[in-house]
What we know:
The chain is mainly beta.
Amino acid sequence: xxxxxxxxYLPLVxxxxxxxxxACQKQDGADTKTSxxxxxxPAATTSQTDTSKxxxxxxxxxxxxxxxxxxxxxxxxxxxxxxxxAAGTPENDNGDHFDMRDYHVFSMDDINGKVTxxxxxxxxxxxxxxxxxxxxPDAAFKNGKYYxxxxxxxxQDVFRIGVATSTSPSGPFKAxxxxxxxxxxxxxAVFTDEDGTSYMYFGGIWGGQLQxxxxxxxxxxxxxxPTTGNALLPKMAKxxxxxxxxxxxxxxxxxxxxxxxxxxxxxxxxRFFEAAWVHKYNGKYYFSYSTGDTxxxxxxxxxxxxxxxxxxxxxxxxxxxxxxxHSVVEFKGKWYLFYHDTQLxxxxxxxxxxxxxxxHNPDGTIQTINPLKx
Length: 374
C-alpha cells in the first residue's frame, strides 16, 4: 500500500467515474452488511472500459481489492488482499484516503476458476491496539495454524505490524492483544524456507513511515525519503517458532546494483519504495518490490533469504493507477503473478486484483510483464 502523489506521476487512467453502492452481503453465514461510508462495491463499469487493452481481467468485481498476497494452502490458492473503500477521506500525500477497515479472504480451486469470497476475516474494531488504516496484509501456515500479518496505525497514528491467528486459511482471524514487538512501518511479507525457518520482510517509505525510523527511533518530522546519500532499505527479521514475534533484531535488506553497490536515493527507477515479496526458484531467492513513484515492480536475486540481493530488472511494468503491489506463487507446476490495477473504477484508491502467468528464463531471470496491451 502506498500513498498518493500529484498527477504528473500518474500513468494514464480511465476518465469515466464509477457509481458506488453500499455493500450488503451474507457470506459463510456471517452478516457483512456495512453502511455506505464504510464500504463500496464496484458498479457494472467493465462494459464502459476497453477490456481488450488489459492483459488480465479482475478476479473480484463486487468489492474493491488490492495488494494481493497469494498462497497455496490445502491444494487451493488463497488470496489475502486489502479491501479498498470509498470512505470519503480527502486524498493526500500520506495516503489517508486509503482508509481500509477490514479484510476479506478469497480462494480459487483453479487459476481460471471461480473465486470464492469467504467474507470478513478481520476488522479494525476487533484489533485492541488499532487506530485506523488496515493496509496490505500477508499470511502463513505453521504449527497447525494460519497466521495473518497486517499493518495498521496504532492509536498514536504510528504504523505497527500485528498478527492474528485462525484454524482455517479463510478465517475468521483473532488478533493478538499487542503489535509484534519491534515492528514498524507496513507491507509485511513472510517467507518460509525449505528448512522451516520463517522470515518477515517489511517497510514502505513516504506514507508507510519507514523513513521515520531511519535513526532507530520514531521521528515524525523526517522527510518522505532522503535526497542525498543511499536509498532507504527494506527491513527483515527472523520469526520465532511460534510465528507471533521476531527472533532477533530487525536488519536491513541489502539491495545492490550489478557492481555490488547500494542504490543512491536519487535512483527512483530501482530503489526500494514498498511491497516486498520473496519467492524461491531453483535454489535462488528472489526479492521483488515496488519502486513507488516510478510504478514498476522490480526484482533482485540472492543466494540467501537474508540477502544481499543483486538487482536484475523489471518484473511488472506500471499498471493503470498510481500504486503497484504484487505477490508471486507456484501452483500446479506453473508460476503466477498476482497484482492490481484500477480497471473497475479508474480511481487510484479503488482497485481490483488480477493474475497472470509468470515465466522464469533458463538463466534464472524473469520475463518482464506488461499489464497493458499495446
